[in-house]
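Input/output pair, single chain:
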Amino acid sequence: MALQYLLAISLLFCDSNLAADASLETEWTMQRSENGIKVYTRPEPSSQFEAVRAVMILEDVRLSSLVALIADTEACSRLESRCVESETIDEIDQTESIVYRYNNMPFPVRDRDMVLRLKWYQQSDSRSVNLVISNVTGFLPEKKRRVRMPKVNLGWKFVPLPDGSVEVSSEGHIEPGANLPAWLLNQFLVSAPFKTMEAVASIVREPLYRDAELSFIKEVTP
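Output:
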């Protein structure tokens, strides 16, 4: 999940705020529904920048395939057009890592970068998989001509459905820093996550991800 999307939402994503119950859905406003992908936005308390949520359902896809794709730093530029650099700077264990990401933004916006903690969780009963992404400090010094984003809360969730398909969700909110106008960021809120979802749906079928095996992910058995 990387920035045009990270900057365009971009998500603290946990079971409670991504449940698909009716009470939650009333908080979101659907902005686009096309090709099986739905994108929602909502105001974020005490922020000029809105939160965004994108949802789609994929058939014939494995949980490990989705995790392998989103966890692959080399896929960043394929999932988000503005992502030009993404690397793991500390792999804590199989489920947790520290990642540096850099996005080349269009003039006159200054380029953004971020240092992120990625943590994977899987529910033992439902097999639902969550990725929680948040910014961390103390790992890398700030770099010249790049704005270090002060707040990033992002995430992904993969929910196996009874018919064998998987609901894929992403959600997030960011504070981009350096007085970036809210109107400029908010204009990307719908198009960027939509394109990322399209890319995920296509790339996850490639052999590298389709055949991925991850010891910390349990697949749903028929």
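The radius of gyration is 16 Å. The beta strands are 29-34, 37-42, 51-58, 83-93, 96-103, 112-122, 129-135, 147-148, 151-160, 166-175.
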